[in-house]
Amino acid sequence: MTTRDDTDLQSIQRLVHNLLDEARAQGASAAEAAVSMGSGLNVTVRMGEVETVEYNRDKGLGVTVYFGQRKGSASTTDFEPAAVKETVAAACAIAKYTAEDDCSGLADANLMARDIPDLDLFFPWNIDADQAIVLARSCEDAARAVDKRITNSEGATVSSQQGARVYANSHGFVGAYPTTRHSVSCCVIGQDGEVMQRDYWYSSARDARDMQDAASIGTMAAQRTLRRLNGRRLTTRQAPVIFEADVAGSVLGSFVSAIRGGNLYRKSTFLLDSLGTQVFPAWLSLREDPHVKKGLASSPFDNEGVATHAHDLVRDGVVKSYVLDSYAARKLGMQTTGNAGGTHNLIVSHGDQDLTAVLRQMDTGLLVTELLGHGVNLTNGDYSRGASGFWVERGEIQYPVEEITIAGNLKTMFQNIVAIANDVDLRKNLRTGSLLIERMTIAGE
After folding, report:
1. What is 6-226's CATH number?
2. What is the mean pLDDT of each run of 10 residues along the chain (445 residues)?
3. Which of 351, 281, 348 shows the shortest CA–CA distance to 317?
4. Strands 237-243 and 365-372: what pairing?
5. This prediction's pTM
6. Which sequence spans correspond to the domains of the chain?
7. Which of 41, 210, 249, 341 sits at 20 to 30 Å (Cα–Cα) from 385?
8. d(Cα 356, Cα 334) in Å, to the nearest integer?
9. Distance (Å, rounded) from C-alpha 280 to C-alpha 240?
């Protein structure tokens, strides 16, 4: 948990070179290999007592080989030479039995990341178990001290992880970079009479110095729990809905899923052929920026070695780009967008209003703070999820609500986004503030 081990990184690079050499020796026309290694510490304190102290050390190796346009993949956690050779042999054996696929193969050689920028992703946290216990205990103590109605706890956890990833392919590309990720979280239970509720809060960063302090995390967890006590059910109605920043990303995440290559070439999305069409209000933009310094989702290249670059998925409300890896791109007759393995730092445009101002703009409606279930149908855009939050009147929170369902259609929901607050949640890949939608169905009593 101290400093980068460059020797380890160099040994991993040698390992992937050996993998590719072995694949060529076994007759593969092309190959790619990825190796990851990581280690970390996790400590949980519950009700003032140490519940778990865990050290983890993980490693994995994956190889994909191509015989023309037949493909085979295999993986192992054993880095011994004999095991590596067997893994390559297994991938080759699989490839020989698969069907030809004219879209399979490595990403185009000219798209490889030749210049790999340093994105400040590696900040080891020199913390041992004893120090982590003290920090976790201070977090939970702060939560339990907020109010006597905080009667129980699911614990406070301190986590510190560091690792490295190396990817190489037979284009001659080799890319490697180390990363760290640290977090402090707390979840407590509140009780008022027979009524009980729970909520949580957390902070996460590449650099531990950028995290929220432990006591304020605990305090926030307790305050979020207390405000949920004595929730009511609503009668079924139509009303405006604000998705708090912590959950708003899941709404826009459905858009990202709908323009993902696999859903597009399978024709299983309501946004088929949406490139160049107006999906959101004209003031809304969604940009991917993979090179944000210290970004939790930053990456200099994707899982195929393709150079990542900043680009708009949505500009002025219009879809400007899909989310494609090279296979999906070939299926669609397009070019990869550098998204093999996922997206990197999606940044949503927002206004100057804070959440308080957006509540006033809404006047009367529902503030959603938690979503339950997975009721999103990407084929037709139908949206229906369990929810809890707060009923708002005259721009002020009136009381907590629970056991309700919110429903609509994503296409209409996207068009009817009225405002996005400036309370952007930086802890997640999709960075957005609280989101106001003009009208949705709220199903209750």
Report:
1. 3.30.2290.10
2. 55 87 94 94 97 95 95 94 94 94 95 93 96 98 97 97 94 94 98 94 97 97 96 95 96 97 97 97 97 96 97 97 97 97 96 95 97 92 96 96 96 97 94 97 92
3. 281
4. parallel
5. 0.91
6. 6-226, 231-445
7. 341
8. 44
9. 17
Q: What CA–CA distance (Å, rounded) separates 141 from 151?
A: 12
* Cβ proximity of 395 and 261 under 8 Å: no
Q: Are 10 and 34 in contact (CB under 8 A)?
A: no
Burial of 335 (0-12, 13-18, 19+ CB in 10 A): middle
- With contact defined as beta carbons under 8 Å apart, do 12 and 164 qualify? yes
Task: Give yes or no for a contact between 307 and 113, defined as CB atoms under 8 angstroms apart.
Answer: yes
Q: Judging by beta carbons within 10 Å of its beta carbon (0-12, 13-18, 19+), is residue 318 exposed, middle or buried?
A: middle
Burial, 129: exposed, middle or buried (Cβ in 10 Å; 0-12, 13-18, 19+)?
middle
Which value, in Å, is the radius of gyration of the alpha carbons in the chain? 24
The answer to whether 388 and 369 are in contact (CB under 8 A) is yes
Q: Which residues 6+ apart lie within 8 Å of 44 measured at CB?
A: 50, 51, 52, 136, 155, 156, 157
The strand pair at 417-420 and 435-443 is best described as antiparallel
Helices 81-97 and 6-25, packing angle to 10 deg: 40
Q: What angle do CA 58, 62, 68 make, to 5 degrees?
A: 175
The 3-state DSSP class for residue 1 equals coil
* Ramachandran region, residue 105 (left: φ > 0; alpha: ψ -120 to 50; beta: rest): left
Length of the chain: 445
> CA dist 92 to 64, 65, 166, 256, 375, Å?
8, 6, 21, 34, 40
Q: What CA–CA distance (Å, rounded) separates 384 from 355?
A: 24
Reduced 3-state DSSP string for 358-409: HHHHHCCEEEEEEEECCCECCCCCEEEEEEEEEEEECCEEEEEEEEEEEEEE
pLDDT for 166 equals 93
Q: How far is CA 224 from CA 53, 86, 94, 143, 397, in A?
A: 27, 53, 52, 10, 13
Please spell the DSSP secondary structure of 240-267, one letter per residue: EEEE-HHHHHHHHHHHHHHTBHHHHHTT
